[in-house]
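Annotated sample (chain length 578).
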Amino acid sequence: MKEFFKARFRPRMLELFDGSYNRERLVSDVLAGVTVGLIALPLALALGVASVPVGVATPFPAPAVGLFTAILAGFLVSALGGSRVQIAGPTAAFMPIVLLIIERYGYDGLLLATIMAGVFLVLMGFARMGAVIKFIPYPVTSGFTTGIAISIMVSQIQDFLGIKTASSPPREFLEKVPWVWHHLPDVNPTSACVGVACMLFIYYWPRFGWQRVPGIIVAILAVSVAVTVLGLPHGFGVATVGSRFGASAVPSGFPPLTLPVVTLERIRGLLAPAITIALLGSIESLLSAVVADGLINDRHDANTELVAQGVANIVCPFFCGLPATGAIARTSANVRAGCRSPVGGIVHSLTLLVIVLVFSRYAQFVPMAGIAAVLVMVALRMGEWHELSRLRQMPLSDAVVLVTTMLLTVVFDLVIAVEVGMVLAAFLFIRRIAETTEVSAVTADDELETPEQLARGKDIPEGVLVYRIFGPFFFGAAEKMEDALEGAGPLPRVMILRLQLVTAMDASALNALESIVERFQAAGGVLILSGLHRQPLAMLAKAGFIERIGRPNICAHFDAALQRARAVLAAPERGAAA
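Output written by the structure step:
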């Protein structure tokens, strides 16, 4: 058991004890951690506010939920993770699924779904599924990422424009758009100006050359001071965190221990959302780790990273936390600030904790329009907008998957989008593979092979039919094989099936071969296979197919197959299949 855990769970934090970590690296990591902590502060606050709708009963105020998620997840993932510089916390990608779960199952349901997702992530890590996540098609990830970005921007319209209504806006996109149009007369121009000013401040801040000072924190501080000094909440009706959630919106204490209600029925109902959280969290965290690897010339341990992300998502809900994962923007900022070890992520968490404990009372002055502006900027940066401009250059199947996943994410929800996107991508991939696989007759003029496989100039005896399969032999190609055989006319005495260009087979291909063998054996004929590669050969051997067809009818190359065919033709028909 010890060796099992050691092989699958190797936190990068342990590298600090190999003697190479020195004071210079410690200072650099601490400064980077403080910097990224300041960057994470407004993001975590904004995500907490946006992820918990007004009126939803929570054991802890919504703004503080995002902050403590960043604190706990950031600490645990840095201490246990497989990346040296990963920064974890709540991310905008989770907002649509979080809002959906809260709407259907309440906040308590969100906590249980997050714990379930954490368990799935841990199991994925110990099952060494870190590499499998990388096989999710890019059009699916690009589609739902862009769809999430659109959903975030639409969800922030009310706070950004300062629209005040007696009831909450609908969550569904198709209902929210006409709702916004209907309430345009209720827009608060002052709130809209605050939001626009905050966005412009964030966008243009890097051009001043002050990269060490986070633009987002400066923008939030600037608009908060301006709104408070000018008295905009009272004279112009600009909503703030304090007016929305109360003066103690961010308590200076720790969140209470919360135990969600667990029943078999709730687990069954939350299974699909939990899997979506786990899938989305694994994709985003491993993508962030890959980006970090490129920045520091390192290689992360994907399975250890999944285990760490799982532990964080198991622990955070017990303290009212949201789903968490690796954050690409914060991880990149951590690297640019000079971090090269997990110490930076731990210091980032401690920085947030100190800010919450000491300065939490000032959070009430942050305008809601400023928070909305931060999330809109995050959405604009996370969307794969460049992919939409390249749709015409993409293969049609990829473009269909991307657009379908994006639209389903926006119009319905992320659960449906991921499920349909994956299924659609799988079907289109199968179709593409089947289209690239060729089944063709071989004649004496063929010259596409190596000398021992070459058919050109070699005598193919009368009564011998030769076919070649080019490409993976999956169930789409298996149908082609059966169609080709149907069109060949009466069955010959011997058929040679050349498989030297087949790299892989599946169960459908095996079934097609078994059907062909049955037909040949019933007619007194023989099927000979030549040029089998390792995977097809191993599969046929495991299925007992080699004994069924006869070992002499498995030939290493075409010359041997022709020699075997001549021997079959020369033998009496009754013993030909021997």
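Annotation: The first strand starts at residue 88 and ends at 89.
Annotation: Residues 27-157+168-383+390-427 form one domain.
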